[in-house]
Amino acid sequence: MSAAQQLPDRARVVIIGGGVIGTSIAYHLAHEGVTDVVLLERDRLTSGTTWHAAGLMTCFGTTSETLTGIRLYSRDLFARLEAETGLSTGFRPVGLVEAVGDTDRLEEYRRVAAFQRRLGLDVEEIGVAEMADLFPHATMDGLIAGFHVPGDGRVNPVDLTMSLARGARTRGVRIVEGVTAGDVITRPDGALPRVTGLRTSAGDIECEVVVNCTGMWARQLGERHGVVIPNQAAEHYYLITDTIEGLDPNGPVFEDPANYGYYREEGGGMMVGLFEPEAAAWNLDGIPDDFSFGTIPPDWERMAPALEAAMSRVPITLEAGVRTFFCGPESFTPDRLPAVGEAPNLQGYFVAAGLNSVGILSSGGLGRVVAQWISSGRPDVDVTGIDVARFMPHQLQRDYRRDRVTEVLGKTYAAHTPGIELVTGRGAFVSPVHSEMVAAGAYLRDVSGWESADWYAGDGQTPHVTPSWGRQPWFDAWEAEHRAVREAVGLIDMSFMATFEVGGADAGAVLERVSAGHVDDEVDRITYTQWLGPDGGIEADLTVTKRGENDFLVVASDTAHGHTLAWLRRQIGDADVTITDVTEATGQLNVQGPLSRDLLAELTDADLSTEAFPFRTARTITVAGVEVLCVRITYVGELGYELYLPRDRTGAVWTALRERGTAYGLRPVGLRALGSLRLEKAYRDYGHDIDNTDTVGMAGLGFAVDIDTDFIGREAVLTERANPRHDRLVQVLLEDPEPLMFGAEVLLRDGVPVGDVRSASYGWTLVGAVGIASVAHSAPVTKAWLDEGAWEVDIAGTLHPATVSLRPLYDPTSERVRT
Predict the structure, then answer these.
(1) Longest Cα pair distance anywhere in the chain, in angstroms?
(2) Are 532 and 541 in contact (CB under 8 A)?
(3) Helix extents (H) in 315-383
(4) Is 648 exposed, middle or buried (0-12, 13-18, 19+ CB in 10 A)?
(5) pLDDT computed for residue 300 by the predictor
(6) Pairing of strands 498-503, 489-493
(7) Percent of the chain residues past pLDDT 70, beyond the cut
(8) Residue 646 to residue 537: CA distance in whole angstroms
(9) What superfamily would CATH give domain 9-389?
(10) Exposure pattern of 83-110 as b/e (b: 16+ CB <10 Å)?
(11) 726-819 domain in CATH 2.40.30.110?
């Protein structure tokens, strides 16, 4: 039967791509009861990158609950799939040994191990002698410790894909090989188009959902469909030696990231895989459509140093002959996290791509997540870090992809020590006060493509950072900025914040329905609110300012830019609403601290007294001769103001504030202090402390909800109020002022792990490391339950006593904010 004869006229879901990801989604859709599915493969199953994958099934190494869960589920699925389908996946739980050669990596892995152990991964730290017993082929020179995961191992990628495909077919999914996908067919649907079909080489097929699972082709297919998926193919290498006598086929996988290598038995020989520090992009202009089961000519000169380092760890590989030296392409995203979810600009178009060389070991869990998302309309895990909506058009640029993939692939096996910053692809957006910040000694960091100040070395000074898990000399500057906001006044540039003007005859009504707070209230008023899904999950955490009748300003965090915009557009329907993204055209300066009113009074004729300009007022005034929207609001827990103004006038206001601010102790303040200040006040940050699986009740944000309004998710909020969840966000403060927290530390009550720290900093006012954590209990979390427990935080295996609170430990009544 020809491909055209196999292709039906319609299906509910069409999956493009017959690798391990596409077949896994098909398999899991069928298990969700969605069997009206067609999977299209342009050639044969596995012909892209799946066929040549190394087949590692390792869970160790991430402090993401979502990614750990995806890996654990995958490992479990691979072990049981043969019993269902009759086809083996080749999974063998031979174990993983992860080698450590320096103290920074040891600190990192101890933190990772504690976090993943709480989520169910069996992992233990072992000594050098134990490593030698488990993997006797490696020299232990220079190693100081290791981590053993007995349940990890290896899998056969082709066998796994065929088993998933059979499981999908058995339940009714149709898999059609030899068919190439073309354009998507869409129709208008409110503010966003909606998928209605797909053109293919075998004819058109009507559908409700298209899923782009095309691996290294995902970017170019996405561009054809108007969707940003900036993954880029790069060269990836491994070799397989000739037969080595005595090599145990059930020996563990061994990884030595410091020497760039991973090792396992393969066909009687040793596989030596590489993640070299000097990587190379491949085919920047696009992957050929007919590239199937293909290889790349190796670059021996570039690879020689990394290959020699990797083989030196296992000297027997230097003595054996080389049976295969393989170079093939794999694709990577700019942040080495997957591209997953519904496209922000096209309803019904899903993406599951950009797996960054962990596609096999992620395939089972990722397939489950995407299938559940499609079938129910809502993901059941935190997707804020992997949402395809986070990507931006500039990341598609050729030079950006070339430079960034080289760097991120080169850092695959690098240690993740705090302070390390990516350096390629920087400067896509710059603040309107960029030059002023640089002159003030800003240490710049990348913030969703923006160059923003992390901290300031001082006027005319050059900032320096040495990545470290410990305290650094620049902590003094950070502390001074923090204290300036608490005791005097700080000036913070936040022009990177996502800023949207929303207007039209129905703007107020739509925003009122989308927002859990009452936002269509008085003119000149700002409202802090959440946008919820029908199930009560938080989709956005932001402010809405009513500037006039049907004239609103919506401000969200930089990381939620694409998702927030897409969420609002999906709710508009046929309403008369216009949305204008004014982020790049708008400057935002924050003037925060107990002396902020006094300073601004020097530069404006407006009455800023509490009586005339109370908390949550938003009014257009003149500051230093420039018309600005002045909003009395804070994200640091002090009296303060946000100033919104035209980009080209922002520098003049910055300069005036700095000149007049000298008398008030003003300091430029970076994001490092913003983080420590907001965490002392327990203010939440979407994508870090709260995500789409959290609710306003669980997050402690019920105060921001107006239950008398008719908003999306209202019924879910009422249900939760009647039956509270058994997990809760809390504030955590270490009692010892010396240890540092960075996030992902495990929280224990009476010696039992009950949660983990979602984000953390150092609280210079509270004198200790401070963070926001989630905790779970067998009943609703109450103050009494918290107070009755003895709390500790596990930092790299050492327990530190802590205080845990439902209320902010700094200014719990918010008196400083409102007076």
Answers:
(1) 87
(2) no
(3) 316-319, 359-376
(4) exposed
(5) 86
(6) unpaired
(7) 99
(8) 35
(9) FAD/NAD(P)-binding domain (3.50.50.60)
(10) eebebebbbbbbbbbbbbbeebbbbbbb
(11) yes
Answer yes or no: are the C-beta atoms of 679 and 760 closer than 8 Å: yes
> Using alpha carbons only, what angle is made at residue 221 by residues 216 and 223, rounded to the nearest 5 degrees?
115
pLDDT in tens, 786-817: 999 999 999 999 999 999 999 999 999 999 99
Residues in the chain: 819
Residue type, position 118, single letter: R
Rounded Cα distance, 215 and 223, in Å: 14
The reported pTM is 0.97
H-state helical runs in 171-269: 218-224
Output b/e per residue, 597-619; b: 16+ Cβ within 10 A. bbbbeebbebebeeeebeebbbb
**Amino acid identity, residue 809?**
L
**What confidence category does residue 6 fall into, taking pLDDT thresholds of 50, 70 and 90?**
confident
AA letter at 521: D
**pLDDT tens per residue, range 383-436:** 999 999 999 999 999 999 999 999 999 999 999 999 999 999 999 999 999 999
Buried b (16+ CB within 10 A) or exposed e, 326-335: bbbbbbbbbb
Domain boundaries in the chain? 9-389, 726-819
Residue 542: its H or E element: strand 538-548
Residue-by-residue DSSP string for 587-612: EEEEEESTTHHHHHHTT--S--STTT
- pLDDT tens, 435-460? 999 999 999 999 999 999 999 999 99
| 443-464 b/e (C-beta count within 10 Å ≥ 16 → b) | bbbbbbbbbbbbbbbeeeeebe
